[in-house]
Specification:
Length: 147
């Protein structure tokens, strides 16, 4: 859609809650599994995406950049949802966080899959953390029993 070729890096599992990039689009998933999808972009990638979508590249991170990143994460999560129909998932509205060293909580026991990418505009990554509801229910019962 953006006319930019992505090169995928090596997949990794992570418990790290600090994205590597300055702008993160976040969307929650719920249903028979719940979790979070995060698209994290370098500042240059975020402004280039916005410029491609709106016809003019902003010089700074602004409301247009947040809207464009929100739309991108919404499209990616929507595609993931369609590939996971058996989990009957619903999507939350996207949220965009900007700034260096921001933190995103996936849940204390959620391991995420991180897929790094590079393109002509810079670096970005996709992180997904999902937990089946039966696992979350068992975890909650264990916490309550420990009290």
């Amino acid at each position: 859609m953006l006319g930019c070729k992505l090169t995928r890096g090596e997949l990794s599992l992570s418990m790290n809650f600090q994205p590597q990039h300055d702008v993160s689009g976040i969307i929650g998933l719920s249903g028979k599994a719940s979790g979070t999808v995060v698209v994290s972009l370098d500042r240059d990638v975020a402004t280039a995406v916005t410029g491609h979508m709106l016809g003019e590249r902003p010089l700074t991170i602004n409301a247009d950049v947040s809207d464009a990143v929100g739309e991108i994460v919404n499209m990616i999560a929507g595609r993931a949802k369609s590939n996971l129909q058996e989990l009957e998932m619903a999507l939350s509205l996207p949220t965009v966080i900007t700034g260096k060293n921001h933190v995103i909580q996936f849940g204390s026991s959620t391991q995420t899959i991180c897929i790094p990418y590079s393109c002509e505009w810079g670096e970005l990554s996709l992180e997904v953390g999902l937990v089946e509801q039966s696992e979350k229910l068992a975890e909650s019962k264990a916490v309550l029993a420990a009290r």
